[in-house]
Amino acid sequence: MIIKIFKKKIIFFKIFLVLIFGLNYSVVAESIKIIKKINNEIITNIDIINEYNYLTALNNDLKNLNLDDAKKISEESLIREKIKFDEIKKFISLQDFENEANNNNLINNIIQNIYANLNFSTLEEFENYLNKFDIKIYDVKKKITIEVLWNKIISSKYKNQVNINEKELIEKIKKNNLTSRDIVEYDLSEIVFQAKNQDELENKVSQIKKSITDIGFKVTANKFSISNTSNVGGRIGKVKENQLSEKIFKELNKIQTGNFTKPINMGNRFLILFVNEKNMISQELDEKEILKTMIEYEKKSQFENYSQIYFDKIKLNTQIQ
Asked: Which of 33, 4, 6, 39 is nearest to 17 (CA)?
């Protein structure tokens, strides 16, 4: 039985290699190629196919990409993952990693959010869906575990550098009467990118805008965004206006549903937000509850900055061949 399953997968891989890389079947039959080496880890053409399957399962619009772009997105996604996993292994054993993957409630909650966004009601439905892409639920758990543990490292390293101006947030709550009134709730997606200078910024913005016009925001997020949300087409989800910084809220307030903001400078990165939905909701909350929510959102934003700084630092010292 195991041999039959293995043979079936080999045939699947060969067919996909032909489709993705345009290779001659006889060449495919004879070769599994090393595409990249990340320190002591390798990325093969099979790995890239598996990554493409995974990304496509989470964002079906990727099927509309040309093969070269699909290959590049999958390769870059794997490089980021390998670099992070290599760093994680400096702090925990592989056994501890397995325990986290199988027993962490946060990971299970993230998976639940993923399949809910794909309009599945149960884990079983999600698993059946993944099988169509030759992906197992453990493959998803492993990828999410890497991100969760990476975030733990960032939190541990930079927790003393996070600076929250609570007085400023309290003033915002009082000024905008955020405790009791109708407020805007956004459903957002994002593209996060970096630029070293003004020329590079203008060039990237031009490319991103053209890509959004040609292939849509979700696939453009896969293609250009350096955020973890790129795997799900940049989807952030629902965010209330009282969670947002003044800078972000001002930009969102200028646009309507189906549009995106101009690039917002977030320190070491730029952020473009797309409004999937925009609704008015009624709320009546205690000031302390709102302040807590705002603090958590601000912490998340600052940790994302530090995460990118740390990743860039590690990548510079990583041997990529």
From this structure: 33
